[in-house]
Design a protein that fits this description.
The complex is a heterotrimer.
Chain A (H helix, E strand, L loop, with lengths): L6 H7 L23 H4 L39 H7 L31 E3 L2 H9 L16 E3 L2 H14 L8 E8 L5 H14 L3 E5 L3 H4 L6 E2 L8 E2 L1 H14 L1 H5 L20 H10 L4 H12 L18 E6 L7 E5 L5 E3 L4 H8 L14 E6 L9 H14 L20 H6 L10 E9 L4 H13 L9 H10 L5 H9 L6
Parallel strand pairs in A: 3-10, 3-11, 4-7, 7-10
Antiparallel strand pairs in A: 1-2, 5-6, 8-9
Helix pairs in contact in A: 4-8, 5-6, 8-10, 10-11, 15-16, 15-17
Chain B lengths: L5 H21 L5 H21 L34 H17 L18 H8 L5 H15 L8 H9 L22 E7 L2 E9 L4 E3 L2 E2 H4 L3 H13 L6 E8 L3 H19 L4 H7 L29
Parallel strand pairs in B: 3-5
Antiparallel strand pairs in B: 1-2, 2-5, 3-4
Helix pairs in contact in B: 3-5, 8-9
Chain C lengths: L6 H7 L14 H9 L44 H16 L6 H5 L3 H7 L1 H6 L2 H9 L14 H7 L5 H21 L23 H10 L5 H17 L24 H12 L3 E7 L7 E7 L2 H16 L7 H13 L4 H15 L4 H4 L2
Antiparallel strand pairs in C: 1-2
Helix pairs in contact in C: 8-9, 10-11, 10-13, 11-12, 11-14, 12-14, 13-14
The chains are: A alpha/beta, B alpha+beta, C mainly alpha.
């Protein structure tokens, strides 16, 4: 009879910790030499009894059991969370109507007496502004009765500029190019919004790119532009979306304008006598031709005179406002890949390339021949750090200050850092040769002044949201807390409650 | 009970010795030595007489009852507290109580205005009296001392003053005060503060409400509103936010720690400019030092106090 | 270079000593300021309150706009008397046709001007003034901008004008002292006594703080505060509650006004569903090891805690994706009497009423 013990094995096995041992197998292995497999098995658990050995540092109470997660019937439906995140509420019926609040109009947008007060956005214009996605979530529109914006110094300058271009005078047909920067919450996007609102009151055509990031994160379709230029890509769906934004927002203006040129790229679909609205809608209906349609629309809007044969019913084109909000996403490689699986630089996307090319001064005619404004804003919250873009912005500021590019103090990229030359070149615009075209400028938005901040806080109080006595000391305190009147921070302070009891 | 420890015997001996001294000092009792000196001349006279006139009988000298007293059968302790465990302490206590009873009617000042006195710490006092003094009893003694100290300094009797002097620590711990900080020639006041593991230095100048932290604006450094409020609280509660400019340098720790370290530093710097704000800021809780720090992890523990779960093997 | 004449001290302190040939260009605004107080600078004993501050330092660079900053006596940008008079005359000419507009014109010409015209008198004039005329050439080595510092003045004031500067400084210190005596240890006037809410540690409403801390998980306070802000914003923007007459909120402002004061709204909601008592399991009251429930009254904070706990627990069953949104919806449901928290409260009270009898055993 074989002994149930193998002594040598036992002595060898004993010091080994149990955890290292192979897990006990239910059935004895076939090739097992020993019959002692059973011994490896964990000893049978003793019955848990209260009389057993005392347990230390173990929760004895049944109450300390973790709460089981509540069973959810089903997860939220697709897109529900995003819709919630992107929802824009422009009105709070609980808030009080502010008495005597003026609406933005062509008269009061140049009125310096209104500085520091809040101007409401006209209600009919809200659909247009929504169409161009001028509002962003988390901007605090939802706690007021109706949307309104503060008139600050920059707003008045903007108003005067837009007014000057629209009216008959020496400024007619001028164009300006600005890159708006500033710290987080300094009101860059709202500045763009104000520009759009003013442009709509002046019957301009407004093109916007509210989310430049969406174009480079490979979320929309892309295709090579043509066989001749395989390294350039068009994004038809994104273009169609932009056309639809533009058409909805500028319907009134586009309806009254007619085609004035031949558009060979569109072949037969563009007929003479078509309105520009109909032209744009071609691209919306068929995204495959969205890009040529956009180009056709652009050339129509930048036309200064009709082509021969299209003289009938030509109207002068209105000035244009082009805004891009969050420029730095366009300054790096996109998430798209070429056929060779190389990353595509954002500047190789036709859409991006078109809007960046507007920054360069035109050779024969200005980038915006009928006058207008390019407002490209950076973002401080959703902002990839791109060294070459920072250098480019510094260069713009230096050029604006009158520094020559060959001057020694002109900011240059560090030769040891891999600066992206395409980015620096994109902003390297020489002084325009055409008189009506402005130089590329850098506009830095800072904080509000104390008076403007006071007007803003009074607006909160008059809406019934703030229960404090608003005096200069109080406003000064908030002004300091907001880092020198940064308007986004002021808004947070205004909606914050402090109950003094 | 008092004899249980050898220490007590020593105490008893000490008190005996002291009693003897006291008695000789107070009553000048008739000691054996002095008795002898009184007696010897008489005896020597007798011896002389005996030599000269051997047959002459003389009467004994009159007994002077004034100088005679009964020799006590045993030594009596001077103080009844001798039979307690800590006689010296109780003597002190009784003495203080009697002094207090005597001068209780004198007008007092509020505790804040009374001069600050450095009484013996408990350990020092035990050494001083050489007896084991219970903590609680010593606290009661301190209470009496403080009550006596509250007597209006102008009317303080010499007796009380001398009595209190016994219980003062040697040296003058509260005497050498730090030089009060002043605004420097550039108009800056400097304050330092700590909280958690952060330490901050604030330079405060008069200005118009700009706050810079580590060379950046306050919004950049503290994105959370709560922290920004914390930082400016000393100026806010005194409504001086638009009257000073703050330049803060803060190192170490996290966001909350940094913010509240600046609060403390700022409050201290503001005190340099305006010492009169102290009560307000005390009430606002900004010059109260929060000395809590993270408890260290100990060997054998998982965290500072958590122990690993007990397993049988 | 030896210290030159300190024009700043001299000009402001003693107007008579001013040199007319100084060529400081003056903005016209300054003149208009001067008109308001033609004689009251310099030696006037009762310095205006603004000059009291001048000894202090100001770090802000508001050099561009001089009117914002309180002016020191030595940097008062008043022009010279005669220039001023000329300016005033120019302004006043339109109105009163050349009549003397200010006391200076009536009182005659300053000594310094006379001396300059009269060469004979110059020889006999005080040494102080002689020095001044000698040393005042047209150019100066220092900036013409106004000085901010008293200290700097002391450093430079090694010339004859030192005395005058010292006198001015003396007066300032006097005024400062007076202010000190009025409010010892204060620079900007007294502070009104602080309400309790202004304490650094208890800056929020007590219920708000309790609610926030109960929303907190894993010690993440700032996250909890963000959730709390969302909840309050929701209460502010959601339509006012339609109260259920069976389950009314505590008396307060009428329902349509509640959203404008969300903290009060929240307090009313929580306090309305807060139970008055809790049930404690007590062993050994009746013997035999059986436990009985006895009702125990709760303090305010405990009541609120229980209510908040119930609300948060009830919100877990909701289907909104965000935690804060779930809680916010639950709160509105409580306000409208739709929430299960009300049932919980009623149940608790019913049990408490029933177990009142167990209290007798406790009273031995």
């Amino acid at each position: 009879m074989v002994s149930s013990f193998c002594w040598s094995c036992m002595t060898r096995l004993r010091p080994t910790p149990r955890a290292v041992l192979p897990p006990p197998v239910a059935a004895p292995r076939a090739a097992s030499f020993h019959t002692s497999t059973v011994r490896y098995a964990l000893p049978a658990k003793k019955k848990a009894s209260l009389d057993g050995p005392p347990k230390f540092r173990e929760a004895k109470s049944a109450r300390m059991k973790k709460k089981k997660p509540v069973e959810k019937s089903r997860p939220p439906s697709v897109g529900e969370r995003k819709a919630l995140r992107k929802r824009i509420v422009l009105s709070n019926p609980n808030a009080l109507e502010v008495e005597g609040m003026q609406d933005l109009s062509s008269e009061n947008m140049v009125d310096a007496r209104l500085r520091g007060s809040v101007l409401g956005l006209p209600v009919p214009m809200l659909t247009q502004l929504r169409a161009v996605e001028a509002f962003k979530p988390k901007q605090g529109w939802s706690i007021f009765r109706r949307p309104g914006t503060v008139v600050r110094r920059e707003t008045l300058e903007l108003g005067r500029f837009i007014d000057g271009i629209s009216n008959e005078g020496k400024d007619k047909g001028r164009s300006a190019k600005k890159i708006v920067t500033g710290v987080r919450g300094s009101g860059k996007t709202v500045h763009l919004l104000q520009a759009m609102a003013m442009a709509f009151t002046k019957q301009w055509v407004v093109f916007t790119v509210p989310e430049p990031q969406d174009l480079v994160i490979a979320h929309t379709s892309y295709a090579p532009l043509s066989d001749d230029t395989p390294h350039l890509y068009v994004q038809n769906d994104a273009t169609a979306a932009m056309l639809s934004r533009t058409v909805t927002a500028n319907e009134q203006v586009l309806k009254n304008l007619h085609i004035s040129q031949q558009h060979p790229a569109l072949k037969s679909s563009a007929k003479a006598g078509m309105t520009l609205e109909e032209l744009a809608k071609l691209g919306i209906q068929d995204p495959a031709i969205a890009w040529p349609v956009f180009q056709a629309l652009w050339s129509e809007l930048t036309a200064t005179s009709p082509a021969p044969g299209f003289d009938k019913g030509f109207k002068p084109r209105p000035p244009m406002l082009v805004t891009v909000d969050g420029l730095s996403h366009w300054m790096k490689n996109s998430e798209y890949r070429s056929a060779d699986f190389d990353p595509i630089h954002a500047h190789d996307l036709m859409f991006v390339r078109h809007f960046l090319s507007l920054l360069k001064p035109g050779s024969e005619k200005p980038a915006l021949p009928n006058g207008g404004l390019l407002l490209y804003a950076t973002s401080a919250s959703n902002n990839p750090t791109i060294y070459s873009f920072e250098v480019a912005l510094k260069q713009i500021a230096a050029r604006q200050a009158g520094l020559n590019a060959s001057a020694p103090e002109f900011p240059q990229a560090d030769p040891y850092s891999k600066a992206d030359k395409r980015v620096i070149d994109a902003f390297d615009s020489a002084k325009p040769t055409i008189a009506k075209e402005g130089i590329l400028e850098l506009q830095t938005l800072g904080g509000l002044t104390r008076d403007e901040a006071r007007g803003f806080m009074e607006y909160f109080a008059r809406s019934g949201l703030l229960r404090e006595k608003i005096n200069d000391a109080w406003v000064g305190e908030k002004w300091s807390l907001a880092g020198g009147g940064v308007i986004g921070e002021l808004e947070k302070l205004g909606r914050r409650l402090r109950v003094v009891n | 009970m008092a004899w249980q420890s050898p220490n007590c015997i020593v105490h008893a001996m000490q008190s005996v010795r002291r009693t003897v001294q006291l008695r000789s000092f107070l009553h000048t009792p008739i000691s054996p030595v002095s008795l002898r000196t009184n007696i010897t001349p008489i005896l020597s006279q007798q011896q002389r007489n005996a030599r000269g006139y051997a047959t002459e009988v003389q009467t004994a000298p009159e007994i002077n009852f004034d100088t005679f007293s009964v020799q006590p059968a045993r030594i009596i302790p001077a103080s009844p507290a001798y039979f307690s465990g800590s006689p010296k302490f109780i003597d002190h206590l009784l003495n203080l109580e009697s002094v207090l009873a005597k001068w209780a009617s004198l007008p007092t000042v509020s505790p804040g205005e009374a001069p600050r006195m450095a009484w013996f710490k408990l350990m020092q006092f035990r050494e001083f009296v050489g007896e084991p003094v219970p903590t609680k009893k010593y606290k009661n003694l301190i209470k009496i001392l403080q009550r006596l100290n509250r007597i209006d300094p102008k009317l303080m009797p010499f007796e009380v003053r001398d009595t209190l002097k016994i219980f003062l620590r040697p040296g003058n711990p509260y005497g050498n005060k730090p030089v009060p900080a002043t605004v420097d020639e550039m108009g800056r006041a400097r304050g330092r503060g700590k909280r958690k593991t952060s330490s901050a230095v604030v330079h405060l100048v008069e200005g118009e409400g700009e706050v810079m932290v580590n060379g950046k604006t306050i919004v950049e450094v503290f994105p959370r509103l709560h922290d920004r409020e914390s930082v400016t609280w000393p100026l806010k509660c005194t409504s001086r936010l638009d009257k000073y400019n703050v330049w803060a340098t803060v190192r170490g720790g996290g966001v909350t720690g940094q913010a509240e370290a600046i609060t403390l530093a700022l409050a201290r710097a503001l005190l340099v400019h305006e010492p009169g704000l102290q009560p307000v800021m005390r009430r606002a809780g900004v010059i109260t030092v929060d000395a809590r720090r993270v408890e260290r992890k100990k060997p054998g523990h998982v965290k500072a106090r958590k122990m690993p779960t007990w397993v049988k093997r | 270079m030896p210290p030159r004449l300190n024009l700043f001290n001299a000009r402001a302190a003693v107007p008579v000593l001013r040199h007319p040939s100084s060529n400081i260009s003056r903005p016209s605004i300054v003149t208009s300021i001067g008109i308001n107080r033609p004689t009251s600078h310099g030696l006037h004993p009762g310095l205006p309150s603004s000059t009291r501050m001048d000894k202090r330092w100001n770090s802000s660079a508001s050099g561009g706009d001089g009117s914002e900053r309180p002016k020191g006596p030595t940097e008062d940008p008043l022009p010279h008397v005669s220039e001023e008079a000329a300016e005033i005359a120019k302004i006043m000419n339109k109105k009163c046709d050349g009549t003397a507009a200010s006391p200076e014109l009536e009182q005659g010409t300053p000594v310094s001007e006379i001396l300059q015209r009269d060469k004979e008198a110059q020889k006999h004039m005080p040494k102080v003034m002689q020095d001044q005329i000698k040393s005042s050439t047209g150019t100066r080595s220092f900036s013409t901008s106004t000085r901010q510092s008293q200290a700097e003045l002391h450093d430079q004031g090694k010339s004859v004008d030192e005395q005058t500067a010292a006198m001015v400084a003396n007066m300032i210190s006097q005024v400062n002292q007076q202010a000190e005596e009025l409010h010892p240890g204060l620079k900007f006037g007294p502070v009104e006594p602080l309400p309790k809410t202004e304490n650094f540690r208890t800056r929020y409403d007590s219920l708000l703080e309790q609610f926030t801390k109960l929303l907190m998980t894993d010690g993440k306070l700032s996250m909890a505060q963000r959730n709390m802000a969302f909840i309050l914003d929701h209460l502010r923007t959601a339509s006012p509650p339609q109260p259920n007459p069976k389950r009314p909120l505590l008396p307060g402002p009428p329902a349509p006004q509640l959203p404008l004061n969300p903290v009060l709204y929240l307090t009313l909601i929580v306090d309305s569903v807060a139970p008055l008592l809790k049930l404690r399991q007590q062993k050994g009251l009746v013997g035999g090891g059986a436990s009985v429930q006895i009702p125990v009254p709760l303090a305010l904070r405990q009541r609120r805690r229980t209510a908040i706990r119930w609300i948060i627990d009830a919100s877990d069953k909701r289907r909104d994706s965000h935690f804060a949104q779930r809680v916010a919806h639950e709160l509105v449901a409580v306000a409208e009497g739709r929430s299960g928290v009300w049932d919980k409260r009623e149940q608790q009270h019913k049990l408490g009423t029933a177990s009142r009898s167990n209290l007798a055993g406790n009273r031995r």
